[in-house]
Amino acid sequence: MQSKRYALFALIGICMSCATKPQTNVPNSEKEFSIAYEKFTLDNGLEVILHQDNSDPIIAVATIMHVGSNREKPGKTGFAHFFEHMSFNDSENVPVGANRKMIPEWGGSRNGGTSNDYTVYYEVVPKDAFEKILWIDSDRFGYMINTVTTSALEREKQVVKNEKRQRVDNAAYGYTDEILRSNLYPEGHPYNWTVIGSLPDLQAATIDDVKEFYNEYYGAKNATLVIAGDIDFQETKELVQKWFGEIPSGPDVEALKPQPVTLAKTKSLYFEDNFAKLPELRMVFPSVEEYHKDSYALQILGQLLSGSKNSPLYQVVVEEQKLAPNIGAYQSNSELAGEFIFRVRANAETDLNAVKQAIDSGLSRFEENGVNERDLKRIKAELETNLYQGISTVLNKAFQLGQDNEFTGDPSYITKTAKLTNAVTAADVMRVYNQYIKNKNYVMTSVVPKGELAYAIKNATKAEVWIEEILQDVASEEVGQGEEADYEKTVSKYDRSEPPFSELPKFKMPIVWTANLENGMQVYGIENTEIPLVQFDITIPGGQLLDPENKTGVSNMLSNLMLEGTATKTPAELEEAIGLLGASINMYSSNEDFHITGSCLAKNFDETIALIKEIILEPRWDETEFTRLMQGLETSLKDREANPNAIASLAYNQLLYGKNHPFAIPGSGTLETVKNIKVADLKSYYSNLVPQNANFHLAGAMTKSETLKALSTLNTWKGEAPKLPKFNLPAENNKNTIYFIDVPESKQSVLNIGKLALSSKNAEANNLDFANEIIGGGSSGLLFQTLRIEKGYTYGAYSGVGNSLEISPFTVRSSVRANATLKSLEIIKEMVSNYGNNFSEEDVELTKNKLLKANTRAYESLGAKLSILRNISKYGYSNDYIEQNQDELIAMTLADYKNIINRYLQESDMIYVIVGDKATQWEEVKELGKPVVELDIFGNKM
Prior knowledge:
By secondary structure, this protein is of the alpha+beta class.
């Protein structure tokens, strides 16, 4: 997995009180925010940071290796990312494949990420698996290199190839990053290539290359280890010494100095994209590296240019000239250099020359008007809330502490970041604009749909990218686990065998309080005072179910329009009012509900609710905004046609629910269903937004009495709830059939396989969820372990059951290498067909342990606590339903599992939807022995 560095900011009045030892907050007029930590260094040079958070019985472990793609050499690109993959495979004292399989089975989550500048490995586990995770982490870090085999090397090459095909080759605008990097940075510059690198370079990698990379960069001196969560400091120090203290220090890794670039001239390039449906323009200016003093002003500059309705680029490009639904301008920081980026995905059939001229016009307006001080104040208020949200989990705190330590030597560098951000003035913003943007050279890309060169920037040069040719012969890329390496184990003074579990932490439901408002709305709350934030959600039954016939998308459009001002506030004024509170307010319509959601600092909850009331009761019905939003919707719907996963999902849902059911169509609608929507349709739907049968959910730093006092203002909101319509499901006449959708030149085939199963109100819903874990529950599931780990056909394969009052489907999803389509289908068919028969007593025990332990970390965040409340209100679950579910899980027998699998997961009842290259795969998939029907990208039979 690739990742970007977290960037967090603090505001005046908020103190990051981080020191070498935990400290008590000093009373102040503003409640000070602090992250207490302890830092120490092992004899081998490994820097270790500990943070204690006893709020949940979980522990996060993050290892930041100071090596990313910027340490690679031309001809050996993509190696840092490839090595991240290799590190998860095997090590001297941990069984083959244990990392991906065992951690989820312990109830944990795990992953890794590679950026330009670093590689991070991270896990969150229940407290009882803490020493086990130190065993796995330390073994991967210090004891994996002897286990690398040629077979493992070749298999992981296929996995990384599949990742690139999924993220780059089979994705609209996937090649743009490669075009920009190769033209912005000169040959030999560490950022001249993408993090995922070149597939020919990857294919040429040898075991000697792997060992050389490990020996050079994976020493203890080149890393930071962070442990955050429910820990005891002294005990943890002893365990860290035991498991990590013998890892070799490694050679000194010379620090890289910043390497900012300048361009002698502006470069303009175009590319015809096989998947894109819309023209896209990007302009990238060389800027400054992370932690440079100017980076803070540049980040604010981006928000001022495009981050609000008052911003000049939004006004010109979106509102006045109506060229695109939105525009982004932002600073992107890396260790050695930075980029300031303008990005516009324009409306269909829009000339990018006009977009470029509009950007120039918007920048001229900015130069003329300068910085609005209220906008500057608003941005800083928003950043205050973002600070708390960014460190609301133990894992995010581990990331922040570790990355600041590794790149600055100071885990508490965020304190300096806060001061530097708060010190930015309007004059600073204008200075960096003049220094890095105005009249400076840049790289510009025009990416247009294939065959639509007329929309590209005039006189642009054709961009050159390397495009893989997929061989039809799957055997040519067949891989397997192969033999384990023959080596002599590294001697250790400790027993490095798997440690036992400690005492199992018992998950307990948070206390849920309930109340009723006078207007009939029920209120559900969970008080949580870890951070001074609240998140809330108003759920109104109906959603897409109440859309007018043949006008799917009305409720979705209403959710957008209602945030475009109120009767007394223009869209810009409403946005500013929300922003000055540091709050966020959103609306969206789902299949069965209409949602009004938000978050804010607890101290601003009353004012935020007052804005919610104004939005609900005093809609603006702005025709100009409606027209703009409709045009933006049409653009996004056109863009959706470029996404193979979206194409597969549309067809799959139509086949499951029938075209007359609301669930057959995405909630945002289609180009056909939205074309006749008028403001009058929205006004008609608006009458459904009433408090009767609605539910208010809140999680965060508010007591019940404080919440109800603030919500009392909503009692003037009244109305009688509509009766929800019922829809019939189709006869099962689509089952046991393959539906194929052609997307020419696809490097992968997207697979959606499944059938309607049950409603979340069904008494057996939990049991089916439990039964899915072994086959499709994450990286330890049979699908993932077989299709990715054993075969190298895919980057991921999963299955699961949806949640709704309506009957939801069980679905298997994956994107597989094009020439492995048939092989993958055969494996899935056999696996699902025999799943019930093969389910064992061992699987029963594994499912129980995995899910019981996963609950300890599943509900840490405020968002997760909100989901508890929504489940209680929507499905009628008890206030301790998770504990009841645990009891149900413990009581399930092997016969129970077999019964539930055989009742709901019959393979012969399933439909198969495949989106891929017909030229190479049509005849192949026929060999599965099922009828094959061709559909177009809208799900219609050809």
